[in-house]
Amino acid sequence: MTGTMCGDVTEPAELVPGLVERVNGRGPYALVGSRCPDCGATVFPSVVRCPYCQGQPLRQGVGAAGSLYTYTVVRTRAPFGLPEPYAVGYVDLDGSGLRVFGLIDPAMADELTVGQRVEVGLMRLGVDGQGRPCLRPVFRSEHPTASEVGR
Amino acid sequence: MTGTMCGDVTEPAELVPGLVERVNGRGPYALVGSRCPDCGATVFPSVVRCPYCQGQPLRQGVGAAGSLYTYTVVRTRAPFGLPEPYAVGYVDLDGSGLRVFGLIDPAMADELTVGQRVEVGLMRLGVDGQGRPCLRPVFRSEHPTASEVGR
Amino acid sequence: MSGEVYIAGIGSTAFGRQPDVSLLELAAEAGRRALADAGIKPADVGIGFFANALAGKLFGDLTIGQNVFAALGMSRLPIANVENACTSGSTAFYLACLAVRAGEVDCAMVIGAEKMCVPQLGLLSSGDSELDTLLGLVTPASFAMRARRHMAEFGTTVEQLAQVSVKNRSHGVLNALAQFRSEVSLGEVLASPMIADPLTRFQSCPIADGASALIVCSESMARRLGARITVRAATLSTGNYDNPQDMVRWRTDREGVEKAYEIAGVGPADLDVIECHDAFTIAEILHYEALGLCPVGEGGRLVAEGVTALGGSKPVNVSGGLLARGHPVGATGVEQIVELTRQLRGNAGARQVHGARLGLAHCMGGDRAADTKSMTVAVLAA
Amino acid sequence: MSGEVYIAGIGSTAFGRQPDVSLLELAAEAGRRALADAGIKPADVGIGFFANALAGKLFGDLTIGQNVFAALGMSRLPIANVENACTSGSTAFYLACLAVRAGEVDCAMVIGAEKMCVPQLGLLSSGDSELDTLLGLVTPASFAMRARRHMAEFGTTVEQLAQVSVKNRSHGVLNALAQFRSEVSLGEVLASPMIADPLTRFQSCPIADGASALIVCSESMARRLGARITVRAATLSTGNYDNPQDMVRWRTDREGVEKAYEIAGVGPADLDVIECHDAFTIAEILHYEALGLCPVGEGGRLVAEGVTALGGSKPVNVSGGLLARGHPVGATGVEQIVELTRQLRGNAGARQVHGARLGLAHCMGGDRAADTKSMTVAVLAA
Ligand SMILES: [Zn+2]
Ligand SMILES: [Zn+2]
Q1: CA C138 to ligand 1 center in whole angstroms
Q2: Residue (of D138, D84, D77, D61) closest to D109 by Cα position
Q3: According to the model, what pLDDT value does residue B5 have?
Q4: Same CATH topology for C5-118+208-231 and C131-200+234-381?
Q5: C163, C245, C290, D364 — which has fewest CB within 10 A?
């Protein structure tokens, strides 16, 4: 669990709890969506009801890594206290095949290419709607960097 | 002119400049609306174009006194820093015959009756949208009270 | 009306404080229920209207209807977001009827939803930039002034006003979806805190979270589905704003009702069941008079005599109305029509008006120059 | 389309920074001009639609359309407030056409207005509660990612992207209502500050204050007024939201266009003049491809070859488009149709497309799951 007490230091909370989880509680981070047992649809983020058949879906990891479908580096005034500039992109997730939007580790902003490999992480990045520092899911290089949280 | 320097003390500004003016610059206060020279319509508050014929109306006093058509005393949380409770009503203005909504001098809140005579005044009452104290037009007893501003 | 329009399905959530349910989920749940009630699939719906008044102001959200319909699996169809203050939902219904009548679609869906029980709500007004708002015109004051004048002109009493709440709260006991499900006595209504003289808290409708949905369809589709409730009139109008306004002989109200009567070819004597916009007790009394249920000035007497209670000859707001059901702004105008449909189908349970064949829903929204900004009437027939 | 709909009148304010003019006055001025253009009185209008996206969020205002129409002396008619992000105005137009087709009215009026040049605006997004917004998806980023992918898949160059701005700014010089009335060079576009790689500031449409109005009517009224521009198609649709979305072969865009072509009975070869939603340069290139003006992937080449410039065979955004005219959200979708009407009447002055007989307006709004939340197309014919 991230976002809770960690030794003597209180980590900031996750922006949206439950967006990412560690596989088996201690493996790599994965994005968590929903899988519908009735129609087989997989979606991200998780939903209360399946949009395709209104079935009751189960929470399920939808991918821990993937390749960058596209990206950009935003150089205007950053919202939510995000770094200036900050990078975002769509990633094609291994396994589920979902193409999902997310932040990219700001350290990678100058070295992005379509198709590159990334993995899911969780970083202290920006603030929430109330201005409190928080953890956001990110895509980062497949080799973990020092900015990783919660090791 | 109210809302400007007055001796050494800066009076608060009018909430909406131009809603009231002194007749001839120093007589009693009057509400200021518009009169359309093309179709004769009189409206309050003033408008850029006549709503009836789209003519270009002239600013004109629409009444300095009148009788109370109806009223209420608002006893919920007051908006804009108005007193709790505060009184409002519709007044039938002498002359123009317009029935206009406005605040009533809070000192009168316990003695209001349909039909009673009131005149237009300008009082320091509540704050504007930015939280600054401001002057609001009010209806008050025909005999001026100590709460009058700008004498 | 050219081209008959039918009610094919209805659905509602409970109304009230629902802190753990999002606006999206409220709206989607009402939609799911309406689809199930109609017995149709999402793909059968040709156009969607979403009604909401406050989410832009409260949450900074836009184009919410698209998210709601997407959650229901409805994509690739026309969707419009509609706002008309308290008539947002009934305006969306009006537009949905137009879409069917135009032949654009066989089937249109309306979802109205509001999430108001949030800390940032504040007092409702007619818009933060309006002069009247800046001068302290909160919504209860607007109706309190009508009440005061009605009392002065016609001798209406505070007890008569309060009786509207007593009646509608007693109806709410019979509606599982209502926010208030307990009776109140006349004394309790009058003793509740004063909001704006002479209106007390129990004479003011509560804010609520909630959603309602309606599916309307063409005659051919209605035949296929076995839907038999028809829309005899759906009207929308705005105020006249003439000055001076007679605040107790509400011309806009009366003319809006007359237009609907004319289109539907009916009059007050024909109505079996009525839902009207009882945001405050005085409002229901004024609407009695505009609807022609009694002469002008006698609305107070009408409610005091029990005529408009369940079991009376002109039952009004047997659902509990806004006063008991609660008033999630975007949903209200839809829910009134949902309730009429229940009544005309004979499915209203303990609050069923026996033999109801013709119903009218009446809604008003917004305040401008002592008039209403929007008014809707729907007349439905079994 | 059952029941022909005609354009009876058009009117616009200038677009740009107008700090001293209220939203109400902007909207009313556009409305006055449209009434004058149509040669009708306010009482001739049977229904009013007001389109606006941001005033609830920015100013806390509600039911603004009623105030706008009241300022024009229009009361006692149905009025609805419509929001659909950047397609708010064209959605209102779509609904106005439905009202005429349904036989509800002979004449409907649409006013779209926005006041954005205010300190509290902030960055535009798809809604403050959306997950994507919380994760940093501002609107320019959404299109920058499409641009990056288009470059990667098709070899589209930054010069080709920038050429869209060069073209539309050169058109804006000819439009007295446009916000930007000076030409820019390719070098200037590329050298302007980077907003979101590869899109620079001059590749992003400016925010603006502005309003536009349209009056549509039935065939019988058109005959009386001498109005001769017909609405061959007016469509509204929402995204499909399938995952994965192909962000450079935009299925929702293509299907929305195909539906309008089918209704109008035309194809890309028939179009003389096009207004499309060039919020960012890449958007116009993607829309070329969705409109079938060129094969997928060749939109960059199309603009570089001058085909879509005034004087080319498929002139696009001769008004200056959003990039030069500015983008007051609620007005944009209306103004595109206003511009087509000018062109089809032969009244577009220095930017007239000679002999224009058939025009198409294309608008998109909102961002959801790498798709659009709303899309409209209007096809007009002289
Ligand atoms: Zn499913
Ligand atoms: Zn005039």
Answers
A1: 46
A2: D77
A3: 41
A4: yes
A5: C245
Tell me the residue type at C203.
Answer: Q
Question: Which of B48, B50, B52 shows the shortest C-beta gap to D25?
Answer: B48
Choose among C138, C152, C370: nearest Cβ to B76. C138
A102 interaction partners in chain D (CB closer than 8 Å): 135
- Distance separating alpha carbons of residues D147 and A50, to the nearest angstrom: 32
For residue A99, which of A46, A141, A43 has the smallest C-alpha distance? A43
Q: Which tokens in the block code for residue D117?
A: 């040049």
**How many whole angstroms from C84 Cα to the centroid of ligand 2?**
28
B128 close to B134: Cβ distance less than 8 angstroms = yes
User: Which ligand has the nearest atom to the CA of A35?
Assistant: 1
pLDDT (0 to 100) of residue A8: 42
User: What percentage of chain D has pLDDT greater than the value 90?
Assistant: 94
- The yes-or-no answer on residue D107 being catalytic is no
A/D Cβ contact: 3+ pairs below 8 Å: yes
Tell me the one-letter amino acid at B30: A
Q: How far is the CA of B15 from the centre of ligand 2 (A)?
A: 27
pLDDT per residue as tens digits for the range A22-52: 988 888 999 999 999 999 999 999 999 999 9
- Architecture in CATH for domain D131-200+234-381: 3-Layer(aba) Sandwich (3.40)
List D86, D97, D276, D294, catalytic entry: D86
Q: How far is CA C125 from CA C54, C121, C171, C247, D42, in A?
A: 11, 11, 28, 18, 28
The partner residues of A92 in beta bridges, in order of sequence, read A67, A99
Looking at all shown ligands, the one closest to residue B51's CA atom is 2
Could you give the dihedral angle defined by the CA atoms of residues D197, D201, D202 and D206, in that order, rounded to the nearest 10 degrees?
Answer: 130
Listed by start position, the domains of chain C span 5-118+208-231, 131-200+234-381
> What would be the CATH architecture of the domain defined by D5-118+208-231?
3-Layer(aba) Sandwich (3.40)
Number of H helices, E strands in chain A: 0, 11
Which ranges of A36-140 would DSSP assign to H, the alpha helix?
none
Task: Categorize the per-residue pLDDT at C126 as very low, low, confident or very high, splitting at 50, 70 and 90.
Answer: low
C370 inside 8 A of chain B by CB: yes
- Distances in Å between the Cα of B71 and the Cα atoms of C196, C201, C204, C298, D183 are 10, 18, 17, 21, 60
Q: What is the gyration radius of the CA atoms in chain C, in angstroms?
A: 19
ipTM of model: 0.94
D120: its two tokens = 């509290």
pTM listed for this prediction: 0.95
Nearest to C148 among B72, B77, B80 (CB): B72
D347 and D9 Cβ atoms separated by less than 8 Å: no
Task: Say if residue A6's pLDDT is above 60.
Answer: no
The H or E element containing residue B101 is strand B99-104
Which stretches within chain C are classed as H helix? 23-38, 55-59, 64-71, 88-101, 131-134, 139-154, 158-172, 186-191, 219-225, 251-264, 281-291, 299-304, 321-325, 329-345
Dihedral, B72, B73, B74, B75 alpha carbons, nearest 10: -140
Which protein residues have a CB closer than 5 Å to ligand 2 (ion)? B 36, 38-39, 41, 50, 52-53, 55
Tokens standing for residue D205: 């449409």
Q: How far is B122 from chain D (nearest CA, A)?
A: 25
Given a cut of 80, whether residue C286 has pLDDT beyond it is: yes
Give the residue among D336, D217, D235 at the shortest CA–CA distance from D284. D336
pLDDT of residue D2: 47
Query: Which residue ranges form the domains of chain B, and what is each CATH number?
Result: 13-141 (2.40.50.840)
Residues in D closer than 8 angstroms to C127, CB to CB, are: 59-64
